Each structure stands twice: as structure tokens, then as C-alpha cells.
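Running this now, will post back.
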Amino acid sequence: MKVKCIHTLGKDVTNYYGDRFLYSEQTQFSVEIGDELTVYGMFQCENSLRFLLHNKRSNKPNWYPSELFVITDHTLPPNWYFGDRKNHKIPAIWGYEEMVLDENHYEDLIEREAHAKEVYFKRKAEIDEFFESR
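Update: finished.
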């Protein structure tokens, strides 16, 4: 799936202060209007959908509110998984195998653990290759 950035500010996120991911109206997300990005994972939490995107400027994965983007390519990569995690802080998650099946991967990636980054960059390359070959 690919998305294009249409907003960059916290004020453009409907529920910017009502969930665990505290943003203010003044929050400036590290994307630029017009950026087209590949989605490497998604999760639903507290009435908010987040996309895992690769920040070109920092060369790191980050989660962004979906409301900052419009979908430009609705295709999901092959080998994506879905996890329904009842009684978990992230009750629904989609993405590459480790993102969904390893309950620690999400947290480890946020914490920038070396093993999680290694998995992420491997899966990112596979997903990028899929979109480039189409």
C-alpha cells in the first residue's frame, strides 16, 4: 500500500489528544506534503489507525496517524499478516510476519533495538522490491 501526505500538523488529526499517542495541535510530523510513501505495517488503537512508514530524513521507521495521508495504491504486499490481539494495547495489527506474530517486535522497533531494526530493514527491502516489480 502506498500513501501520499496531505497534512503535517497535529491539528489535522481528529483525535490528536484522545489516545495514547499524545499530539498537540502544534505537533509537526516529520513528513512533507506531497511525500509518497510505502506502508510497512498498520495498527488500530482507540479509534485511530496508524501507518508504519519509513522516514527518509532519519532513515528510521515511524508510526504516523493515517489522517495525514490519502491512499494512492490500495495493494497490500504478499505475505502480510493480520493479528487480532484482544486485551492488548494494540488490538489489531497488520504487516510483515514478525510485526504481527512476535508480540515484542512492535515495542522493540519503537525502542530501536538492533534485532528489530534488522528484521524491519529486511522486510522493508522485500516490500520495496514487490512494489518496484509491479
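The two ends are 12 Å apart (CA to CA). More later if anyone needs it.
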